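pinging the channel bc i need a second pair of eyes. not urgent but kinda urgent?? the chain im working w is below, pasted from the shared doc
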Amino acid sequence: MTSRIHSVVVVVSDQEAALAFYTGVLGWVKREDNQMTPDYRFLVVAPPGHTTGICLGPEHIHGRAAP
């Protein structure tokens, strides 16, 4: 049985721009930033004090970004 949700994926076309928006504009914090492979960066942001975050997933891994 699942006891909590770690993160959900939001597909983005530019991880750096998305990170700047979530942290700079919304005031969220970067929870994880791991270079998993040369072309895949696992990047999670969350509101301060929250355990569930948003994985800013690159579209070349997760599919096309929403408009």
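so The radius of gyration is 12 Å. and The mean pLDDT is 89. — does that match what u expected or am i reading it wrong
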